[in-house]
Amino acid sequence: MTEHLYLDKQHPALWKSISGLGLKVQEAAEEAGLGRGLLELLNVRISQINGCAYCLDLHVRRAGEAGESAQRLAVLPAWRETTLFTDKERAALALAESITELPDQRVREHAEAFARECLSAEEFSAVSWVAVTMNAFNRVSITSHHPVRRDRP
Length: 153
Fold this sequence. Notes:
Blueprint (H helix, E strand, L loop, with lengths): L6 H4 L1 H20 L4 H15 L2 H13 L4 H6 L11 H15 L3 H14 L2 H24 L9
Helix pairs in contact: 2-8, 3-4, 3-6, 3-8, 6-7, 6-8
């Protein structure tokens, strides 16, 4: 079996750069008024779509630390089917999903229009950057086969 190549270890300067971008995006999102809980919901949802186990493990834990409930995290893949999320959260989730999935133009325009109704320009931009950056982190972790470590009892 071929040993997995960790991209972050192979090119640590690039990893440092993308990590720095992630910190700047988080800072911009918080300055735009997006709370830590919403940021983590977005990170979790994007990682669910991309199937990134490593990022899911990390961001589900961080979402809990930010006060996110187990119930909302459990139903996050079906957020459209519940009333557990605010309009602002729904708009942010729709925009992040659109950026992640890159659906056809009509679907993207619908998601963007809904987001523009519920989010300020600064929030819209910050959510977009969160999605772009989280997608990049997902791809690094998936390509590197970053392992999920078992929790210690």
